[in-house]
Amino acid sequence: MSRSSIYLTCLMAAVLAATAAPAHAYLDPGTGSMILQVLLGGFAGVALAGRLYWRRFLVLIGARSEAPEAEPSKPRTER
Amino acid sequence: MRDAAAAPAPEEAPGAPEPGSFRDRDGRVFYREGRVLRSLSPRAYADWQRLRGTRFFARHVEAGTVVATTDAGPLADGGGLVEHARIPFVSYPYEWPFGMLKDAALLHLELMRDALAEGFVLKDATPYNVQWRGARPVFIDVPSFEPLAPGDPWVGYRQFCELMLYPLMLQAYRGVDFRPWLRGRIDGIPAAEMQRLLSARDRLRPGVLLHVVAQSLLQRRFAGDGRNVRGALADAGFDKGLIESNVGKLARLVRGLEPPRVATEWSDYDRTHSYDAAGQAAKADFVRRAAASRRWRLAWDLGCNTGRFAEIVAPHAGCVVAMDADWMAIERLYAREREATPPGVILPLVINLADASPSQGWRGAERKDLAARGTPDLTLCLALVHHVVITANIPLADFIDWLSSLGTAVVIEFVGRGDEMVQALLANREDQYDDYTAETFRALLAARFRIRDELPLKDGRRTIFFAEPAPA
Asked: How confident is the model at residue A68 (pLDDT cuts 50, 70, 90)?
């Protein structure tokens, strides 16, 4: 379990490095449960995790800022 | 009321809101003149207009797996009304056998799969959104279907786990009855608690590591975290392919879950009941004559065992709710009824009369007790009374009073003291049941009902009665 715990924690950190507009639902999807859906997403999830790690890597080496203003969030309908 | 089989709940007033329909502000159910209507917010009404044009929605309504719904016109605020076909008798997941909860979960996943293919999603995932026509599941919460916003995760995933996946795992992996867990908490079993309920060995079983352990760990790690993960996932490129993959794998997982095979007291009743063939035939004939005497809107079979007598009543009733405390007997009845063609009218429920489902939830009205969901006009109580009085210690007069309060006709069997089943019940307990005599029974029944027919069975050790409510 310890290896997968590390993986999950890293994935979480990578997800939270991104920013976005707020969204709402009458049901709380649960932060942890949403993150888990990346793992449950099969190959598409692996690709998404890869993109998140890549973004995190760019931040680490200074090629990209932590909260990039150049990349505003997509407009999203309120749910 | 559209449905001939409909059973109006007694507390319904014209335009009365359904007290269990408040969580989603976008669509609330109310009743008007026996019709089931739902008012939709402007956004939900716009979603409905899109939904009714999709192929999957039309297909599922046609198949009966989504409740038939018609547009009842716009409202002044830009929202609108829809009307739903009526469900004969409302039931709750804590009354279902394993197979029904499993089929409700599979229907959810199937609807998710089909909705996603056309850009829709189910925004919640509660088994309370599934009701039954006989033993066929019907999804009733039409405004749960929403267009899937780009990048959105499956918001209902956690709820699916807490209210459907974990209860099924609890019974399949641990052999623990899931019903008290669902009845005990309206939102189901949280991941952290589910994790504690499973053994270390269970972690190797299908689905446990990811859906239980990892989910519990992640929820604990990020509890109270105010950051907007949902938006972050969208920005990172989360798309519906991930949800589709999860849904597909969950469906395989759920299909593989089976309750452990254990024999319960009555699951073999058809083979172990105390009647010989002729006695059984005489009893069945009596029930058949009573059932055929008129058409019944709603029948209850209390202590139905494997449902043999519910089947006799079924051709004469709009709906037969077949109840027994023995979950395995109900499991078998459901397994048989779900394959019936054409679909039957028997709704099998696991209910212990001495501890039947209460009214509960918000204001004690979100979920209703049995009688508040519709009272029967025919009730079978066959080989039941000795269990009520001797096993459950309920005074005989109290039981007959309760039956009478339902305003129902009854087919009721009195099992006398000479019967070997009664002797077995009394073998190891103090006999405090002075009220348990054929004479007292008959007097109580005659005081509250009009006895139309009776027949001695098993050489007079039992008597079966057909009685109608006494005129007021």
From this structure: very low
Residues of B in contact with A18 (CB under 8 A): 231-233, 235-236
State the pTM of this model: 0.89
pLDDT at B222 over 90: no
Tokens in use for A26?
A: 């009458």
Contact B232 A23 (CB under 8 A): no
Nearest CA of chain B to the CA of A21: how many Å? Answer: 6
**Distance from the B157 Cα atom to the nearest Cα atom in chain A, whole angstroms:** 7
The answer to the question of residue A37 being in a domain is: yes
Of A20, A38, A45, the CB nearest to B228: A20
User: What pLDDT score was predicted for residue B37?
Assistant: 95
3-state secondary structure of A26: coil
Instruction: Answer yes or no: do A79 and B238 touch at CB < 8 A.
Output: no
Number of compact structural domains in chain A: 1
Q: Report the alpha-carbon distance of residue B205 to residue B173 in Å, rounded.
A: 8
Q: For chain B, what percent of residues have pLDDT higher than 70?
A: 94
Closest chain B CA to residue A21: B231
Q: Tell me the per-residue pLDDT of B24-83, one tens digit each, with 9 for 90 and over.
A: 888 899 899 889 999 999 999 999 999 999 999 999 999 999 999 999 999 999 999 999
Of A22, A31, A79, the CB nearest to B149: A79
| Host domain of residue A36 | 2-60
**pLDDT grade, residue B232 (50/70/90)?**
confident
d(CA B228, CA A32): 12
What is the per-residue pLDDT for B171? 96
